[in-house]
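Chapter review: from sequence to fold.
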Amino acid sequence: MTGERVLCAMSGGVDSSVSAALLRDAGYQVVGAMMRFWPDDKRASTFDTCCSPDAAYEARRVAEQVGVPFYLLDYREQFQRHIVGPFIEEYARGRTPNPCVNCNTKVKFDELVRKARMLGCRYVATGHYVKRVEREDGSVEFHRGDDPRKDQTYFLWGTPKEALPFILFPVGELEKPRVREIAEERGLLTARKPESQNICFVPGRVQDYVAEQLPQSRGFICEIGTGEVVGEHLGTQFYTLGQKKGLGLYQSHRVRHVVHLDPGTNTVWVGDYEDCLWNGLRAEGANYLLDLAELPREVEVQVRYRTKPVRATVLHADERGFELRFEEPQFAVAPGQSAVLYAGTRLLGGGLIADHARELPVVGEDRRVAVSS
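The token string follows.
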């Protein structure tokens, strides 16, 4: 479909820079664009890598090098509404959010697709390491990128199914070293730019940022098996499932993991390693990249970006969510994270992990255990 007009999202990084260059080489009419997320009162050390004023300058310079027009699009209000606000709300609910998933779903492949159409563009292109596969019947599938170390399909499960035919991934079939080589060969100023690993709007540690946004609230740490109070805490938002360090338990010689967070009663529940194993999961807010009737009964599911997918059986699936049973129990599956479904390399969709339905013991101060000497 060369000759078609494409809006290429440019972040000021090497992947999107090379994407714009490859599209131009292929004969597309490329329009470069960057989404402005940082506010006027940008805090120090936030938005300092991707999505920063410096990155916008670099993206504009690269657009000049490639020979395409460039626009800086104002999405500050949408970013605050869809990303920053829900990020804090999820921690207040005792969940662990993934803002990059929300950003791709609610902003880049929703708001940006609409903007592309307003600018007369048929396609939106990004520098994600995702492989776009077009079938003989014209349907489009997303598959894992050819570089397994960089595959980013995990973040795109929320893409509207109807948008798939209009999204391009020019570097999806390349490995990262080759992308940098192409940038070097063309003299692009982003060729050696390091990658951003942090959440763009969070300065420093996530725990410190959450502490600024949510007030401390003293509560009990309780044993999941007995209901005994075995410690105290300053807020469920400071804990994650599976955590075993820094719990400050009265009986510190006992190895315990966080197995459940209950902001409603301000309780952190701890237990043995086995108490942190999940036999399956329930997901809500589902999105499918195929017709629901075509969803296979046996799938692979990935519950964190850096974990390997595991086999699972679909027990139930509807438009709102799905329920899975793992082939083998999985440790510390965190509510608020994404459960992303695959058939081999093909991305099928996903949903947000919901919590276990637990029968919790009754807690009282009279069940507090003695402080060990």
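Two observations follow directly from the output. Confidence is low (pLDDT under 50) at residues 367-373. Residues 99-118 form the longest helix (20 residues).
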